[in-house]
Amino acid sequence: MNSLIDSIIDLLALTDAKRTNESGCRLFIGWSRGAVEVHDQLNLAPWTQELAWCDEYRHVWVSVFHRCTLTYCEGDLTLSVAPDAKSFYNELATAAEFYEKN
Fold first, then answer.
1. Is 72 exposed, middle or buried (0-12, 13-18, 19+ CB in 10 A)?
2. Phi, psi (rounded to 5 degrees) for 17
3. How many CA atoms lie within 13 A of 77 on its CB side?
4. Whole-number Cα distances in Å, 7 to 48, 100, 101
5. Which of 15, 19, 53, 70 could link 61 by a cystine bridge, Cβ 3.0 to 4.6 Å?
6. Residue 80: pLDDT band by 50, 70, 90 thresholds?
7. CA 72, 99, 68, 64 torsion: positive or negative?
8. What 3-state DSSP class applies to 4?
9. Which pLDDT value is given to residue 35?
10. What is the pTM of this model?
11. Is the dihedral angle over the CA atoms 12, 74, 65, 83 positive or is it negative?
């Protein structure tokens, strides 16, 4: 895996969920006290917070460069790492549809 992604996994103390989602992305999971803590720990250069997908309980960051999404929801963290561009764009489309409805 990419060294930046490995460093994010280590920094946020994420563990391999040993599964992939419907888009084919590998999942890592963890826990955090708050979205501000996560935001402060990310090297924000390759990450963009998707404000349209956020609410008071959920925050979502996307790294197009590394084909990843990071979601904080009520303490739970999920990092989704796409193996290729097609999987990544499927992940974004699925997320956009889900967050539009929820």
1. buried
2. -75, -5
3. 26
4. 17, 31, 33
5. 70
6. very high
7. negative
8. helix
9. 87
10. 0.90
11. positive
Angle at alpha carbon of residue 91, lines to 100 and 97, rounded to 5° = 15
d(CA 86, CA 7): 24
What is the token pair recorded at 19? 């599964």
Q: For 35-102, give the secondary structure using H, E and C.
A: HHHHHHHCCCCCCEECHHHCCCCEEEEEECCCCEEEEEECCEEEEEECCCHHHHHHHHHHHHHHHHHC
- Rounded CA gap, 35 and 76, in Å? 10
Q: Residue 80 is encoded by which pair of tokens?
A: 């989704």
| Adjacent-strand bridge partners of 62 | 48, 69
Q: Supply 65's token pair.
A: 């460069």
Q: Are 8 and 80 in contact (CB under 8 A)?
A: no
